[in-house]
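Sequence in, structure out.
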Amino acid sequence: MKNNNKKKYMILFLLVMINCFAIAQKKTRTTKNPKLTDRQFWLTQMDKMVRPVVYNLAKDSLRIAMPQITSIHVDNKAHRIKVQYVEVLGRVLSGIAPWLQLEGGSKEEVELRRQYRQWTLQGIKNALDSNAKDFMNFDIGGQQLVDASYLAIAFTRAPWLWENLDKKSQSLLVKSIATTRKFKPVFSNWLLFSAMNEAFMAKFGFDWDPMRVDYALQQMEQWYTGDGMYTDGTTFAFDYYNSFVIHPYLAAIAEIIGKKTNSYNGMVEKISKRNQRYAVIQERLINTDGTYPATGRSIIYRGAAFHHLADVALRKTLPKQLSPAQVRCALTAVIKKTLESPSTYKDGWLTIGLYGAQPTLGDFYNNQGSPYIASNIFLPLGLPENDPFWASPDEKWSAQKIWSGEDFQNDHSEKLK
């Protein structure tokens, strides 16, 4: 009798334990990780993208860690590998500079920024120190005119970097950027690279060449073709160079040089109006799922296709048709779509492609540093978390409103000559 009671109690005990385990398992399955805010998501993606570059450069190990990858269409493999280091430095810093400039935020963000500031200053010092393993020459070839300008625009976006860089490194940086004057820019958007380097000189109180700036601004005025867009050189191409380079550079140069002289007041006003019109077009190019037309060269620059829209948001000069919240949500969708493929990264480094690794999409000038221009989509991280761009509730962007059947405002071109 006693044994039977023991068996009953044991069976009852086991049934209770099984039931408790099942309840616990159910709770585990239904418990979801807290959803990241858009800002937290952006910070996570930015950190994942740029950490291998900034961390390794700070440790003087970038040349050791960074893969020596070029496009399958490469024109001169050895040369493209030589210039990839200045290329990746300029492109990464141009995107994260406004965030490095910012103060405040959550405890976690402040700590992350503190770490990145430390790494960035040490990394720049290593890049300019001829005794460092990661020392970078700026006079290897014409491509470095391009990449010096991305470094130049980074410093104009984050004066904190200049103010906290040691005097010796400041001097070496100025000499390095000035070295690229020896290269003749291609008769295209490249004129803006020369002008941006001179704008950097002007901003920080060094001798600058007004002719290089004037030539670029006057020529871009000649190349304005209408509806907020410029030709890239003598012919028009339906690609993203109005966003990769032309509009963001014109805005930066106009802002700096406009404080040095009144000669360009009328032109600056035109640049501003065209800037806004092209922002409207850019936002409408973003599909309901974050995809966008994969047209033109340099498509492997991923989110940098919206460098301009991100820059206008950062400058708080969005046109009245675009709310900060709808732009945030649209850009968030682009970030998710362009970075979600499992083959976006290989061993932590960006691959050449638009949606994951797609080597055939590369151009002859692409190397491992090239895709890091994608960091420019993160420019609005330079706005504080309480700014309407981050604090306003989610909002549908134009494509979502239109393709869900909502009545919506029509769109018309603008000459803006």
